[in-house]
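User: I've been trying to design a sequence by hand for this structure and keep getting stuck. Would you show me what you'd pick, starting by listing the structure so we're on the same page?

Assistant: Good idea, let's start from the same input. This is the structure you sent:
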């Protein structure tokens, strides 16, 4: 039993390392994707899967009413503190339009997480899988319909909260000890199909569509409901693939996944500065992944005192 628990901890640490790296790397290359086909496709692939998988994993740790309430309070606390800092800095720089109700850049996840935790607190007592599956399907339908409403956007992170909720509900339904690695063949098929579909539809959509932050009209996405439905299929398939291939045992970098919150919160200003550095595109394509890794582990080392080290034995 101890080995099983240790393996589970190592697995989720590894998953979080991969996801936070994708967050940092995606933000780092964002301003250069129009200059490079390679970066553009990397960006599309990252945004097709990394936030859905982040939401799914978050849901896996929202099993009980107690954990839901604790997560809601924690996420909301950090959101209010960080958003207040952003508003203060914006005010000093002359931007007086910043508000608590429109999250700054990557802080949307904290606000959405607080809403998801509240919703999961209501669904935590549901035992029947058929009801849970119905809730996920209803969530997908609602998300596809809500994309037509211009007023459901970045305000209170409503669009993303609604769009990523089905992944959270799926995560809450899945047992924490699900052996994803036992389904490598099935996940491989799902992943390949998802990649093929992504290759087909991605050129038809602006990259902003994959942010799920605004309405179809705002992103100029035609057939929005259909494309959003397909995006769920892609995200589920790619998430399944990643969860199946990410190692379940302790690796040299596993402990960097023990407490990723501070890395997530602090990477923003650093990436903003790095994106302003004028570097030749060919060098940028090569060094951007290395830079993202360096930023990750630099922040991890700086915040290590805050980490609760995983006891992976």
């Amino acid at each position: 039993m101890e080995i099983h628990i240790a393996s589970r901890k190592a697995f989720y640490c590894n998953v979080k390392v991969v996801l936070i790296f994708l967050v940092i790397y995606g933000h780092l290359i964002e301003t250069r994707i129009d200059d490079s086909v390679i970066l553009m496709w990397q960006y599309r692939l990252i945004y097709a899967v990394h936030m859905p998988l982040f939401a799914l994993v978050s849901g896996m740790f929202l099993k009980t009413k107690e954990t839901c309430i604790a997560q809601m309070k924690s996420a909301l606390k950090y959101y209010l503190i960080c958003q207040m800092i952003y508003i203060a800095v914006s005010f000093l720089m002359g931007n007086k339009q910043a508000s608590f109700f429109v999250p700054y850049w990557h802080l949307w996840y904290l606000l959405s997480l607080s809403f998801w935790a509240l919703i999961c607190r209501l669904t935590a007592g549901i035992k029947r899988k058929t009801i849970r599956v119905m809730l996920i399907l209803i969530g997908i339908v609602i998300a596809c319909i809500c994309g037509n409403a211009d007023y459901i956007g970045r305000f209170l992170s409503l669009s993303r909260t609604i769009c990523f909720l089905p992944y959270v509900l799926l995560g809450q339904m899945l047992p924490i000890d699900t052996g994803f690695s036992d389904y490598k063949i099935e996940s491989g098929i799902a992943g390949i199909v998802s990649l093929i579909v992504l290759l087909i539809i991605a050129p038809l959509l602006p990259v902003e569509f994959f942010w799920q932050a605004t309405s179809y009209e705002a992103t100029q996405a035609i057939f929005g409901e259909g494309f959003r439905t397909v995006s769920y299929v892609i995200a589920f398939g790619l998430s399944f693939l990643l969860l199946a291939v990410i190692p379940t045992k302790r690796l040299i970098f596993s402990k960097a996944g023990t407490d990723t919150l501070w890395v997530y919160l602090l990477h923003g200003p650093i990436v903003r500065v790095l994106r302003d550095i004028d570097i030749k595109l060919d060098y940028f394509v090569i060094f951007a992944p290395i830079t993202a890794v360096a930023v990750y582990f630099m922040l991890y080392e700086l915040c290590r005192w805050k980490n609760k080290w995983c006891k992976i034995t």
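That's my pick for every position. To get oriented when you compare it with your attempt: The first helix runs from residue 2 to 29. DSSP finds eleven helices and no strands in the chain.
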